[in-house]
Amino acid sequence: MLKKIGVVGAGLMGAEIAFEFARAGYDVLLNDRSDELLEAARTRLNGLWNKGLARGFYSEDAGSPLDRMSFNADLKSFADRQIVFEAVFEDEQVKGDTWALLDGICDAETIFCTNTSTIAISTLAAHVAVARRPRFVGTHFFSPVSRMKLVEVMPGFETDEAVVEEMFGHLKAAEKHPIRIKDVTGFAVNRLLHVFMIEAVRLVEEGVATPEDIDTACRLGLGHPIGPFELMDAVTLSLCEQAQEIMHASYGERFRPRPLLKQKVRAGHNGRKAGQGWKSYD
Ligand SMILES: NC(=O)c1ccc[n+]([C@@H]2O[C@H](COP(=O)([O-])OP(=O)(O)OC[C@H]3O[C@@H](n4cnc5c(N)ncnc54)[C@H](O)[C@@H]3O)[C@@H](O)[C@H]2O)c1
């Protein structure tokens, strides 16, 4: 029987996690801090659906995923959810308080999944009762969730193996590709990615090549869909710096953010949304 899913945080990640499970036929409830934020998420998802239909990515056979979604700003509506994904701000206090609240609302059997990028899964699991911790697991999605298949699945110290297996099944049902990763800082993908980005910035600092030419090299020479500078501009340079600082604290020199990256962030050249990053945007 398909499960009832709840997603807390209707931002960039949470809204599309909800959308992907609704697309797979699950009954999905999406929560955020206000009705206005939920309305904005609904509008964005509706646009995503219409664009996907127009481009032939989606078919209308199973109806719109939005018909299987409900939106509620009150977390108490999560009482009947069997799986809950959390994608609120990357802040231990905000995430911890959210999980503590949900622990008091949800059934003892409900599985809790966090989409944290940097906080240890066992640290977040410590915010729920001991009895819940075997049902607490990390599921790290990638942006844009509606296009990226990969999900890193990290069990915490106390996670039950059966819960990991069950989540692999649900993620596959939503056409995702889960891989099992140990609960370490940066998990696996961000460790690979940031070493790569740091070396790309070092090449520019040394005058070896321009950001544009390095992006071209990665697309045409390595088969990457997007170059490292385009990617930094999309996710924001400040987020890259923050992730590198966190991994620098855990692993040392190889993750130290490059001076040029820090200088660009301080100058407000934060990427596409700022109108200026490694290149200019209208
Ligand atoms: N952006 C990425 O590429 C990416 C990739 C992987 C993982 N993540 C992680 O996913 C999580 C969400 O990131 P995002 O990029 O979607 O951020 P975002 O800022 O776009 O969305 C966060 C949402 O959470 C909501 N929120 C905050 N506190 C809340 C609360 N107490 N109750 C309900 N809703 C609350 C906010 O209103 C906002 O809509 C973070 O932990 C982030 O590290 C992000």
Structural write-up:
With 282 residues, the chain is of the alpha/beta class. It folds into two domains: 177 residues, NAD(P)-binding Rossmann-like Domain (Rossmann fold, 3-Layer(aba) Sandwich), CATH 3.40.50; 86 residues, N-(1-d-carboxylethyl)-l-norvaline Dehydrogenase, domain 2 (Orthogonal Bundle), CATH 1.10.1040.10. The chain is built from ten helices and eight strands. The protein starts with a strand and ends in a 16-residue tail after the last helix. Nicotinamide-adenine-dinucleotide (NAD) binds next to helix 1, helix 3 and strand 6. The site of nicotinamide-adenine-dinucleotide has 24 residues, from helix 1, helix 3 and strand 6.
Task: Considering the chains and any ligands shown, give keywords for the structure.
single chain, alpha/beta, Rossmann fold, N-(1-d-carboxylethyl)-l-norvaline Dehydrogenase, domain 2, 8-stranded mixed β-sheet, 13% strand, binds nicotinamide-adenine-dinucleotide
Query: What would CATH call the homologous superfamily of the largest domain?
Result: NAD(P)-binding Rossmann-like Domain
Number of domains: 2
Bound molecules: nicotinamide-adenine-dinucleotide
The number of helical segments is: 10
Q: Compute the separation of the termini in Å.
A: 49 Å
- Cα gyration radius (Å): 20 Å
* Bulk shape: globular
SSE-based structural type = alpha/beta
Unreliable sequence segments: none
CATH topology-level fold name of the largest domain: Rossmann fold
Number of strands: 8
The fraction of residues in strands falls at: 5-15%
Let me know the average pLDDT: 97
Spatial arrangement of strands, main beta sheet = 3-2-1-4-5-6-7-8
Which sequence of SSEs, written as H and E, runs from N to C?
EHEHEEHEHEEHEHHHHH
Q: Report helical residue fraction.
A: 40-55%
CATH hierarchy class name of the largest domain: Alpha Beta
**CATH 2nd-level architecture of the largest domain:** 3-Layer(aba) Sandwich
Largest sheet, in brief, is:
8 strands, mixed
